[in-house]
Amino acid sequence: MDQNKLKQLVGREAVKYVEDGMTIGLGSGTTVKYMVDTLGEKNKKEHLNLMCVTTSKKTAKQATNLGLTVKELDQVDEINLTIDGADEVDHDFNGIKGGGAALLWEKIVAKNSNRNIWIVDENKMVNHLGKFPLPVEVIPFGSKHLFRELQKMSLNPRFRTNVASALVKTDSGNYIIDLNIGNITDPIKLAEDLKGLTGVVEHGLFIHIVDEVIVGTNDGVRIVNKK
Ligand SMILES: O=C[C@H](O)[C@H](O)[C@H](O)COP(=O)(O)O
Questions:
Q1: N or C terminus: fewer CB in 10 A for the chain?
Q2: Is 150 touching ligand 1 by the criterion CB < 6 Å?
Q3: Atom 12 of ligand 1 has which residue's CA nearest to it?
């Protein structure tokens, strides 16, 4: 099955978890885009009473255009369920996120959600994290110095740039440095090390955050629950 079809499949499946009256966290990325489209349709058809909190300005715009009610995180008491994409997921249910530079808001929303579901295609299920470069969101001030520190740690950093070769800015106005590490043998230790660096706002390692993963395969959808 073509990758977009898989993204659509898992997006549709995830929307089945949305119930009337819920406050829903909407992730970011190309897979989530399909999910939000389906949620918009469901909302219109079933006249649901939903509130949505988004993890990026892009998702907020899409959701608003579809007629979904979008609130700021601080305007809601709790988020019942967040549905997001991921770049890699390992067997311990740890993941890498931030391929679309939305990792900071995504992590804040996820940590404030009662339940987190990720929607991915099966190529993203891996034995070890790290083939996908690990995104790190950093404060622009002094970021070249931080970059050198990451080099000294042998983490193969690279500033993320856009098609015009300009530095990518996140929705919070920060830069992204991608770490090309290869196999991450100890994600928990790496997460701690990165958080210990002054200037690092957040990293894309999502440790023990997701509860359930909806995996799109050529044979249909597979649901993987945390053990
Ligand atoms: O910053 C972006 C997010 O973490 C995305 O959820 C992640 O990169 C997956 O995106 P996609 O569904 O486009 O592969």
A1: C
A2: no
A3: 31
In order of their start, the domains of the chain are: 3-126+207-219 (3.40.50.1360), 134-203 (3.30.70.260)
Instruction: Kindly tell me if the per-residue pLDDT of 227 is higher than 90.
Output: no
Exposure string (b/e) for 130-164, b if CB count within 10 Å is 16 or more? bebbbbbbbeeeebeebbebbeeeebebeebeeee
Output the pLDDT for position 179: 98
Mutation pick for ligand 1 pocket among 34, 97, 174 (CB with most ligand atoms within 8 Å): 97
CA of 110 to the centre of ligand 1 (A): 14
The answer, yes or no, to whether residue 100 has pLDDT greater than 90, is yes
- 95 within ligand 1 shell (Cβ under 6 A): no
CB of 157 shorter than 6 A to ligand 1: no
The residue type of 192 is E
Bridge-based pairing of strands 70-71 and 51-54 is parallel
Which ligand 1 atom is nearest residue 119's CA? 12
What pLDDT, in 10s, does the model give residues 101-113? 999 999 999 999 9
Report the pLDDT averaged over residues 100-126. Answer: 97
Identify the CA nearest to 135 among candidates 183, 89, 90, 102.
Answer: 102
| Reported pTM | 0.97
